Amino acid sequence: MNKLIFTLAFILTGASAFAQTFTFNQGGPTVKNYYTELPYQNIYGKLVVTVELGGSKHRFLFDTGAPVALSKQLAAQINAKTMHVGVINDANGAADSTTIVGIDDIRLGDVIFSGIPALVLLPDMYKCWNVEGVVGSNMLRNSIVSIVADRQVIIITDEPDKLILNKKYSVPLVLDANNNHQSDPVIKVFINKVSAFMAFDSGQSAFMRFTDDYMNQLSKLNACQVVDKGYGASQIGAFGLQANADKFLVGVASLNIGRARFDNITAETNKTGNSAFGTKLLDYGNVTLDFIHGKFYFDPRTETTNLAEKHWPFSPTMQGNKLVVGVVWQKGASLVKPGEQITAINGKDYSEVSLCDMLNNKPPLAGYETGTITIKDAGGQLRNVQIVKE
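Below the sequence we write its predicted structure tokens.
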């Protein structure tokens, strides 16, 4: 509750048959020697840009952890032609059939991209930001992309000489071998001096996330350790809320991204998806993804940052128009159960809420160290629960 209310993820991983029969890595810029600056709006960690498509302007999420995507309405509006139909999985492992269409021309700033495949799939939650599509990694794979948080602009170019890039702040960038059909960028870092590869996902708001499998691999190398265990659901994928499952809070003593070092990090795990850094990284510096030369640059404001933080005993999520208990950590196990409704927080009524209100406003307990939560159990009985951030 001290960060986002819950995790939103549009990570898409194709089923094996889908990946073998289609690649999103088609099309690209219509010119060479291009340079453009694209202003973005940061909505609690979501980067929203304006693109031109079908002769009009539209708001798109800038998401390096997903392919280009369109809403059904926008795909119909531009009369996009079908390229492929297949099955795709969201970040939570839920699968559904979907259509891929071709975009003839889409303009980012001064640059036109042509022949770009796009998924016709956009979660309803994106309407909360008036977003009609996604600028994804397959569209960016032939460019150098610099996210300049200081100015809130995204530079897209194929001319490295027009950027200020310091080699001492660079690490290798590769395309995810498991998702090379959409060119997800993966970077090399050191976690407690152990070499590790993690994606950079600008569609995620958190600083860092792990899958359970990667956590287990790293813990065997003493790169991280489990500091708390919980149970419940928090992540909303393209096809809805994940199922309740075991969750782990992982502690990392030190992380190195090039010359930058972060100490005392904690991150949550998920059973599915991938391990990645999110846009919280932009709070500490500027990021450049050089897809052309295979380099990732992180230019930190300070070279060493302590990320030690306190945590609440449980975190909420949304279920319909209700705010409910999501993940319950060990210290909260005697207080609440996953799925119980939260009807009030510090005396403010939350008996009926909208997803958009929760996404577009600060978390209810932001800035607090303690809180009084009113819980409605399965039998309709109300009780007050006192919680402490520790």
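Helices lie at 16-21, 72-77, 137-140, 212-220, 355-359.
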